[in-house]
Every structure is written in C-alpha cells, then in structure tokens.
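Sharing a chain and its predicted structure for anyone who wants a worked example. Both blocks are below, sequence first, tokens second.
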Amino acid sequence: MSNFLSRRFWEERDVELYIGKLLRYGVILSSIITITGGIIYISQHPDQQLNFKTFVGAPNYLRELTTLLPAVIKFDGMAIIQLGVAVLIATPILRIAFSIVAFAIEKDRMYIVITCIVLAIIVSNMIFGLEG
C-alpha cells in the first residue's frame, strides 16, 4: 500500500470521490443521530401537546457543545437531535478541511490559500458571530 500522504497516492485516486463520500456519510450519520434523538424525545414526552402559535427557541443548554454533550450522555432526546444538526453543520466544514489537506499534498499553493481563507471565514463567524 502506498503512503497516504504521498503525492502518488492522491494522483491515483479521485479526490472528488473521497469528498463525495465524506459528504454522503456525514449526512447519513446526521440523519441517524437526528432520527434516534427524535424517537427518544417522543418516548420521553408522549403526552406533550405542540403549540405552533408561538415560536419558542431551543433552550440555552442546547446552544453550546460544552453543555450539549453532557445532555447527550444523559440521553436527552432534544440534545441528541441538536447533536444531529451539529454533525450536519460540521460535514461541509470537514470537507473544506479535507480539501486543504488534499491541496497541500498536491502542492497547489493558490488553492490552499483560498480554501484556508474560506475556512477561516466560516470558523470566525461560528466563534464571533452575532447573537440575535
């Protein structure tokens, strides 16, 4: 087997195929997590009446990973659904990071810079985004 980080390894394979698989598996994983969370949530709240007249946002503990993950460990259905959404959001970000690695192996400096700028914009907006 060729070295994973060698240029020859990447020239012999279609990087777009790997990126497609990454996106596909990310969406499938997100769907599985979200459906599982939905089933757990419905089983935990069987008699809850829905109110579509007023919008109520997600509770504060579901807005940050530091408080979300302990709730997932406790099998909180709403937290598991939110984790599925987080995985769905993370999937294209991982695609960008994977592209940076692929461009670095191919030594394509222009695309490395452009992709790093895109990743920096997305990450900075996630970290420093305005709350509204």
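Comments welcome. The longest helix spans residues 15-44.
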